[in-house]
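Batch job 17 of 40 flagged for manual review because the log was empty.
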Amino acid sequence: MTTMAPAPEFLADHTGQPRPLQEIPLTYEQARLGMAFHEAGHAVLSLAYGMHIVSSEVIAWETEPGRWALTGRTVHQAAGTSPWHFAAQCAAGTLAHVTYLMAYGLWTPERSAACAAEHDRELAIDVLARFGYRLGRGHVPAGGKSWGMVQGMARRKVGHLWHEIRTTAHAMNEHTVLSGDEIAALTGMVNPLFQGGAA
């Protein structure tokens, strides 16, 4: 953990606006591991869907003596990926985070609600819209899917890949940042090359 806050771009959503901060009533160690699970969910599903992972990390800093903040970041290349697979990896972070709370005996309704990463949903909606796909927040748009449907896709994949997500999360918690190749080596998955050349 550092005493310096990350650069503003690390705390902004894809539109450049600051991501909302929510307090989760957990110890620092529990919350940090939860964030590692969140990012591991994104990273592992991205690999499973054929995306290239550059890195995935937990970012923690002390906001004032005895108080801290956490976020995470997974950098990937998704060119050529199915739009619905891209959306599912966006949903996977929160699902892996909530599954961590349940698996480790930490789940409460308040903690679960605090895991909601609406910026991930909004990123999926906006990216898919650029390619002509319709993703609805609370409804099924004509010719599209609802966020709930995408969460269902992601939930099945998170369950199937839980061992890989757990392995990645614990390694990330220990080392703070992992490269995509390190995640692939840990999980036995493949980190595809960047489109058009080596990473």
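Reviewer: the log was empty due to a logging misconfiguration, but the result itself is present. The beta strands are 52-64, 67-77, 135-136, 145-146, 177-179. Unflagging and moving on to job 18.
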